[in-house]
Amino acid sequence: MLRGGLVALVLFAVAACSTSTNPDTKPTSAEIRVTGAAPDSLQLVVSTDFFETIDQVDGTRDQVFNSADTSFITTLPYTETVALTDLGSIVVDVSNPSDVPATVRLMVEVNSGQNPYDREATMSEGGALRYVFNFFSPVFN
Questions:
Q1: N or C: which end of the chain has fewer CB within 10 A?
Q2: Edge-to-edge order in the sheet of strand 78-83
Q3: DSSP characters for 19-35?
Q4: Whole-model pTM?
């Protein structure tokens, strides 16, 4: 078990190094826009302080929040600009806690030249749209 975890950690480190980005392009903010039609409020969770876990069997990734801001959107359209931490990473999750369907479009644009995230969905109760951006910039000594 420990050996498998060590191998996964090494592979992740190699992958992070090979996908590193120029530190000069590290994003400092992200603009979040939510549009559409929602008869009831939507839940918005935003975190800039999180880490990812990777399931070694199926490769799925999950985000674990160290801290997050949770709010409820009662009026659409909604726009917010979020300052990013030194990690330059963000998770944005919009969900529908209501049993009434909502048609929602989530757009997130980080200021590092990445293509903006732009997805639309009709969400029943519990449905969600999630955007995750990780900026990798390993430091070598």
A1: C
A2: 78-83, 29-37, 102-110, 117-123
A3: T---GGG---EEEEEEE
A4: 0.77
For the chain, first and last CA: distance in Å?
A: 30
Strand runs labelled E in 17-141: 29-37, 42-54, 61-73, 78-83, 90-95, 102-110, 117-123, 128-133
Q: What is the pLDDT of residues 83-132, one digit of tens each?
A: 999 888 999 999 999 999 999 999 999 997 778 999 999 999 999 999 99
**1 neighbors 9 (Cβ within 8 angstroms):** no
By residue count, the chain amounts to 141
Token pair 């674990």 is found at 64
CA-to-CA dists, residue 13 to 9, 42, 99, angstroms:
6, 37, 42
- Residue 97, domain extent: 24-133
Structural domain count, the chain: 1
